[in-house]
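Run log, item B.
One chain of 214 residues. Sequence copied directly from the ordering sheet:
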Amino acid sequence: LVMLAVVLLWSWQPGWGLLFFLAYSAWHFGETDFNHWHMPQPFAQQLYGWGVLGWILSSHPAEWVYYLQALGVTYVPPTEPLLWLSGVVLLWTGLLVPAHRLRSYAATMLVLLAGAFLPLLLAFGFYFLGLHSRRGWQHLQDRLQLSQRALFKKALPFSLGGWLSFAGLGLAAQLCSFSFEGWIPAFFVFLAAVSAPHIVLMSGLYRRTTKAKP
């Protein structure tokens, strides 16, 4: 139901759908990385999350404009000031990271820097799959005390449901009069939809199971 509400919001007002998606994605990226670095600082993690998204998007200005237009969003934010501001936020975050987590922070910055020289979708996937998803999976294992195999079995029905939902949304984008057109915009809307309940549940898991680690 949450996913359906997100899709309907995008179809009705794509600008608001995008803003909502960016806001909860920034929160989630910040929350995940800050939990990984054992830094319980909600305000700083929100700034950092916006820094991550701002850097990935503003370092690909032409593609960002193309995808905004494909999604039916007419407003284009100034990318150069956003790029500089995002870079400052990401560097400032390094001053807050504990010494024993600096290698992990440095690896994150290298992934984001490398992404600036890749196409936008690859840059996003490089961070999302290369770091964020791996860290989230590790957090689920640790906090639910499950093996890789046991967690994979539990996740399999949801993964299959996600792929079927994506296929259905893509077909609907081809056959119905959505504000967005084509598979690539449908993929972004799908990410927004599938992320919303995931972020709510992961945030609750972090709050319930936060514990000090060496």
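Observations after the first pass:
- Residues 148-175 form the longest helix (28 residues).
- The radius of gyration is 18 Å.
Flagged for discussion on Thursday.
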